[in-house]
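Technical note accompanying the year-one report. For the benefit of new consortium partners, we illustrate the data format agreed upon in the data management plan: each record pairs a sequence with a structure-token string. No post-processing was applied to the example shown here.
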Amino acid sequence: MRERFPNLPERIAGLAELAYNLWWSWHPAARMLFKLLDRIAWKESRHNPVRMLRDLPAEVLHAASQNPDYLHHYDTVMIRYREDIETRVCWFAANVGEPSCRPVAYFSAEYGLHHSLPFYAGGLGFLAGDYIKECSDLGVPMVAVGFAYPGGYLRQKIRVDGWQDDIHEILDRDAAPIERVLDESRKQIIVRVPFMDPPIYTAVWKVSVGKIPLYLMDTDIEQNEPWNRGISARLYLGDLEQRLRQEMVLGIGGLAMLKTLGIRHSVIHLNEGHSAFAILERIRERMEAGLSYDSAVEQVRATTIFTTHTPVPAGHDVFPFDLMDKYFRHCYSELGLSRSQFLEMGMNSGESRPGFNMTTLSLKLSSYLNGVSRKHGEVTRRMWRHLWSGKKEEEIPIISITNGIHLPTWVEPKIELLCNKYLGPQWLEDQDNPDIWELIDNIPDHELWKVHYWLKIKLLNFIREQARKRWIDNMVNPVNVISNGVLLDPTTLTIGFARRFTAYKRPDLIFRNPDRLKKILNNRWRPVQIIFAGKAHPADDEGKRILQRIFTLSHDPEMGGRIAFIENYDEQLAQYMVHGVDLWLNNPLAPMEACGTSGMKAALNGVPQLSILDGWWIEGFNGDNGWAFASDGDEGDAEAIYHILETEVVPRFYRLNEAGVPAEWVRIMKQAMKRTGARFSARRMVKEYAVTFYQNAMKSA
């Protein structure tokens, strides 16, 4: 890898390998290794070490290679990196199975790993990213499969009238932590996707996520016809036929890619139904090897895990039968099935839209099924109960494994230092032990409040810097600059609302009674301000209209400069927000929040949540760690938010003790951290999957 950075001296050549392994993204000492080279260059690269090393002058790198202090830090980090990547002593080996066993093949349409790799649209992608990071930490044998979307998701640009423009930019993958996978002749490996005619080919890329290799496919190569080159152009294509082809490449092409790479997996884990065609391909492969259809189905079902995240029927992919005939007609006879038998695998009798349902296929042909919170498990069993006729709802074999967050990724380094001091230096190793988190009470109130206030200033400085850059680079309208948060005040109670802008998440619910909200925002002695961020799906005009309304209100003088909308929400802005706001607001329509992990990330860093009782908050709320309200329609829910703000949140935030610390508020901050740390960590989540699913599925394999 060093040849990619010709200016890199031999003494610090390990920086090249480290830059291409996202291990650095969840280890502050590794990030500091790059930051110490040149703080301005680190900032300008947007914390992307590949771009930074490519652009740094030779003299800067040479100076670092001669600096004893830098070399001491470098050697310490590289020793830790080698130990983590190469060690065979891990939780999985000690508790589940041999680390040398065939890996789990994890399929996901998106991965939220770092903003330098924009292969994510929202929560599903961040969950997948956190999941494979934790699998690396625990030594779970795994290989991950997805797409290297050259166009990413979308970059959001807000016009002066508040309408979202969807800007698609091609990712410069030579300046990102992603590598081409090469064959023996040093050419990029190209894989032909089985059964698609005319032929479709995909190039293979790799992202190293600690110990976990993530292999990504890209159809935008010269071997493909123009229509086929666009299959992997970006996430969630709007054209239904192209979407079907994308999911064929993900599932069927993903298996072909693993075979080409010589990777023999033991079980597959489907993160949503987008990759469900992998199930059919595994059945066909076993029949080709001599098994009967029934035996092949039995073996594939026993080694397949399916996680669904979608609590509403409209969110599941359904393809018309004529499209299925066009692309799968040849498969009917290969599987020994009639057309009706084949299509029956994806037919959902409880659905208003006739067609081939990818979730139905996954549920019918997987032995291990789960929703992503207790409530979502209940909703999912109710939604799909007709697939298990004769069984009571509680007997339906869909369990719940509540999502969690990867603590090393989402805990802010200054919060981590506080925990190191008062929870002990090994607290991250024991993060899923609830007893460890009781030690949060040992942190002096003034120390926690001082760190939080510093993080709040850091957030507002970041917002202002982004607004300044947009002003300089794009000469945006001054209205946009005002709306982008330059008027925000660090001493004011700050509410954060950041997620995908769509109707069921009700981003504008708090504006239901504008006059009452203005009184809350503009209280002379106890003001409140709100930071909004999020993107609407390109095809979601209703979501764009909601966004436009909030943007318009953000520059309404009657709102007192207390509303901000921050453009182009991504992983970097998410980090600043969950670390720096005072209160996290979440008010979707119940029960449409499958889980929701943004509130977990905020609570981990001492930011309490005000949320409707849905998703993870039903399990997370204990009466002392934030605020909750039950669903009562838009009017009732808005009234609940106003009442809680006026009578609970605002008074506690502004009630200071003699040391100038809001002691009651800090107590709630500590409760939020204590309640979240162990129960909602990715460590707890991955262990549940490994013990409940992987262990048994591997025995079947």
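Partners are asked to follow this layout when depositing records. The longest strand covers residues 201-209.
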